[in-house]
Amino acid sequence: MAKIIVVTSGKGGVGKTTSAAAIATGLALRGNKTVVIDFDVGLRNLDLIMGCERRVVYDLINVIQGEAGLNQALIRDKRTENLHILPASQTRDKEALTPEGVEKVLETLSQEYDFIVCDSPAGIEHGAQLAMYFADEAIVVTNPEVSSVRDSDRILGLLASKTRRAERSEPPVREHLLITRYDPNRVTSGDMLTLEDVREILAINLVGLIPESEAVLRASNQGVPVVHDMDSDAGQAYADTVSRLLGEDVPLRFHEYQKKGLLSRMFGGGRR
Amino acid sequence: MSLNMDRVASAFTFKGGMLPMTVMELTSADPEQIRAQLAGKVSQSPAFFQHTPVVLSVEQLDEPHLALERICAVCRAHKLLPVAVRGGTDPVKQSAWALGLGWFPPQEARPRAVEEAPLATAEPQPEAEASSAPAVGRIYRGTVRSGQQVTAPEGDLVVVGAVNPGAEVLAAGSVHVYGPLRGRALGGIHGDRQAGIFCKELHAELLSLAGNYKRLEDIDPRLLNQPVQVQLRDDQLNISSLG
After folding, report:
1. How confident is the model at residue B67, as a pLDDT?
2. Distance from C-alpha of B146 to C-alpha of B65, rounded to nearest angstrom
3. Of A153, A200, A203, the CB nearest to B166
4. For residues A197 and B22, what is the distance between their CA atoms, to the nearest angstrom?
5. Contact yes or no for B145 and A151 at CB 8 A
6. Cα(B4)–Cα(B94) distance, integer angstroms
7. Order of strands across the sheet that contains A83-86
């Protein structure tokens, strides 16, 4: 049976899809059979971040409506073994996503995979609720910023009440906090909330901290999940996150303000 | 919050208020029958009959003319103070005004109340107990998150955890938060002016007691992030440190 992980946030633009792509890739790189599903019907992005947009033929909605088989819609990742992508539809309506259909797809995938990563759309409507409904674990992506923290708080409330586990009174969804776009320099100058502020309000286990990094934008535009770029701080931070998800104890990195040394100032080096 | 901060001391201010009020639902217009039943009630719970203001509801009576003056006299003799009449015909309204009482229009038809009324008169004892027994409150463990609302419709609400921004906690009685209070807290939602709000760390978006409120920006910054208690004093929320 696969473990179903939803990557969600409430607020848009905080890095859900980037994180879903990086974490799914990271899990596959560690030898786990992984599939990542795009639930953002109508605003499909995951295929771009995963660099497989030209290979999309069928999508999740086609499968749910019986127009294609699951194996026809699954796209095998070219770089990583054990990794598949199930894209969303760009043209269909969100309402085409039915709970019964999603349940059937997840059940079938569960037989074959170790991890199912669901990339949730922003918001708290139908699509976002379906993405989280069947989850065993949730990664709540949050930027160190008040509106993002409040929306994450709202999502945590829904995870505790509007999921299958909650409705069946089973053990609750395991919640993980993933802080992205963290810039220690701006935290020090008071522009951003501190790591402690965010943790205190959301009061859930911190699974990772991804620093603001040029590598993320570069990776998105190239269609290569940033976890492949192990020279970058963001790539390493996602790799740490995956380790923690797998139960390893990894110390936190990239959360402290680093003064630029003379050499890096002269040669414009530093954190990429 | 009162708005009379003018230079001239005003003699009074008008305020809307929701006061708890006992309604005496009459099912008989016979003053003698009322007298007999009241005498029984007084012996059961004398504490209740301390010049308690009551509204006489005559909605269930079908009589166009009432011996309103005699009924009022019976009530006063048993230390009940009729302050108004609810329902009834136009002559009833006129005689209420003539007696210096207020008059309220009848309530919307509520079949439930009609069914319950005869039951209550048949078994007066449990009813009398219910009014003196302490109301059951509610204990909530965990974080109250943005968008969530936790209510104690009767009694106090105890939250063991944080109340986050965008969350709302309400209670008929007092609100106790053993954690940071960052959302909205409303106590005494049915008008209980004795209710208070207590928290370990004050950063509330809104504090309200029996309809009187203070917003975050009205709160003295020195009290923020402190353990505090909030009480109603002269229609003003009084926040004091517990530290």
Report:
1. 83
2. 56
3. A153
4. 49
5. no
6. 36
7. A75-76, A83-86, A34-38, A115-119, A3-8, A137-142, A174-182, A205-211
Write the DSSP symbol of residue A261. P
What's the confidence (pLDDT) of residue B122? 39
* The pair of three-digit structure tokens given for residue B236, joined into one six-digit string: 């003003």
Q: Which pLDDT score is estimated for B118?
A: 39
The string of pLDDT tens digits covering residues A225-272 is 999 999 999 999 999 999 999 999 999 999 887 766 666 656 654 444
List of chain B residues whose C-beta atoms are within 8 Å of the C-beta of residue A151:
146
Q: What is the mean pLDDT, run by run of 10 residues, along chain B of 243 residues?
A: 57 74 82 83 72 83 79 84 85 84 72 38 41 72 94 95 95 96 95 96 95 92 96 94 87
| Residue B164 forms contact with A (CB below 8 Å) | yes
| Interface residue of B140, B141, B145, B159 to substitute, partner A, most A CBs within 10 Å | B145
Q: Which residues of B touch A158 (CB under 8 A)?
A: 147
Closest CA–CA distance from residue A153 to any residue of chain B (Å): 6
Torsion over CA: A124, A128, A130, A136 (sign): negative
Helix-then-strand count for chain A, H and E: 13, 8
Length of chain B equals 243
ipTM of the complex: 0.75
Which residues is B149 bridged to in the sheet?
Answer: B168
In CATH, what number does A1-253 get? 3.40.50.300
**Chain B residues touching A200 at Cβ < 8 A:** 180
- Work out the angle at residue B109's Cα, subtended by the Cα atoms of residues B106 and B113, and round it to the nearest 5 degrees: 95
* Residue entry with tokens 């620093």: A211
CB-based contact B165 A151, cutoff 8 Å:
no
Check if the beta carbon of residue A46 is closer than 8 Å to that of residue A101.
Answer: no
H/E element, B120: helix B111-122
Q: How far is A19 from chain B (nearest CA, A)?
A: 24
Q: Distance between CA atoms of B203 and B206, rounded to whole angstroms?
A: 9
DSSP 3-state helix, strand, coil percentages of chain A (rounded to 5)? 45, 15, 40
| Closest Cα in chain B to A198 | B164
Q: Quick one: DSSP state of residue A84?
A: E
A153 and B145: CB-CB below 8 Å?
yes
Give the residue from chain A lying closest to B203, CA to CA. Answer: A201
